[in-house]
Amino acid sequence: MHLGVLRRLPLALARAVLAALRGRLGALCWSLAPLSLPLPGWRRVSAPSPAPAGSRREREWDEASLTPTSVNYHFTRQCNYKCGFCFHTAKTSFVLPLEEAKRGLAMLKEAGMEKINFSGGEPFLPDRGEFVGKLVQFCKQELELPSVTIVSNGSLIRERWFKKYGEYLDILAISCDSFDENVNVLIGRGQGKKNHVENLHKLRQWCREYAVAFKINSVINRFNVEEDMNEQIKALSPVRWKVFQCLLIEGENCGEDALREAEKFVISDEDFEQFLDRHKDVSCLVPESNQKMRDSYLILDEYMRFLNCRNGRKEPSRSILDVGVEAAIKFSGFDEKMFLQRGGKYVWSKADMKLDW
Q1: Is residue 89 within 8 Å of 188, Cβ to Cβ?
Q2: 29, 86, 254, 309: which one is catalytic?
Q3: What is the rounded radius of gyration, in angstroms, for the C-alpha atoms of the chain?
Q4: Is 207 part of the annotated catalytic residue set?
Q5: Are 237 and 264 a contacting pair, CB within 8 Å?
Q6: 264: part of which helix (H) or strand (E)?
Q7: DSSP characters for 146-192?
């Protein structure tokens, strides 16, 4: 495309076109590895070597193209909580420069992304929430994504953030595993004199005031599996209550090189089903077992590499910034059918929810 044509395009469209061209060039360069050299201005990210001939990873390369409809971008591993079952532990403090992150997000939009979920770590740690705020605004205002969401522990969110960025955010999901503060402390969600549950109610009110859909995420584990949360969840009235079964990921929260020892939090499938049965009358409940969780999420790490969790570990692809979305996603282990089966695509734009704020 001639440079003069690009100059006449709207800014957002021009960026998307450039992102697509970079992605295709990156994929071409990777196919020529190890002869290829980095393109000017591109950031090289350490990643696994290309797969040997005939290997499982090479077979995945030949699979049909996947669409990154819904992407979870864990752009930081740092967190101010110490949840014992966390499966994205703080091994680095790396965060992409803002413009690089935006470039990657534009590439994902061009590849078909409709929903972006920012997570961590704790996404409100970098630059006191300004980093994620700018990404949220970019995705909604310039990329015009139908859905922009955040998952947070909520401890660092202030009302001024809602005033500045709330209009660009569709859903705020707050992690809350118990309505007993003593249990939260046992799990690792305690933070000095601050009360996690009281803060949850404050955030719920701000979401009403600033027209942000409110969601709750709970990880069911050995310390909360007997708890009855019916009354509290109904009172908070989230648009969705995601209930996860505690999951082990080798090298993250279990195994010799892990920073967490989550084995003591693990519950059986039967225990999980009993918890779900006890809360079956909660209309917004969305259950997710280990099997559904492991294969049905597209996860990007802090280097914008897709993480394949099929083998019980997080095996990274090449970064989409280096090889493009189409090339990287083929190593993601993503089960698109399971994504749809678990209800991964739903009414996720607040403009379509018709909520009574």
Answers
A1: no
A2: 86
A3: 20
A4: no
A5: no
A6: none
A7: SEEEEEE-STT--HHHHHHHGGG-SEEEEE---SSHHHHHHHT--BT
- Among 29, 79, 139, 207, the active-site one is 79
Interaxial angle between packed helices 130-137 and 98-110, expressed in degrees from 0 to 180 and rounded to the nearest 10? 30
- DSSP one-letter code for 246: P
Give the predicted TM-score (pTM) of the model: 0.80
Is position 246 annotated as part of the catalytic site?
A: no
Instruction: Please report the DSSP string for 34-75 in residue order.
Output: TS--PPTTPPP---PPPPPTTSHHHHHHTSPP---SEEEEE-
Active-site annotation holder among 83, 139, 176, 309: 83
Tens place of pLDDT for every residue, the chain, 357 residues? 544 544 444 554 455 444 444 444 443 443 333 333 333 333 444 433 434 433 454 444 344 578 999 999 999 999 998 888 887 777 789 999 999 999 999 999 999 999 999 999 999 999 999 999 999 999 999 999 999 999 999 999 999 999 999 999 999 999 999 999 999 999 988 767 778 999 999 999 999 999 999 999 999 999 999 999 999 999 999 999 999 999 877 877 788 777 777 889 999 999 999 999 999 999 999 999 877 666 778 999 999 999 987 777 778 999 999 999 999 999 998 888 888 888 888 899 999 997 775
Annotation says 83 is catalytic:
yes
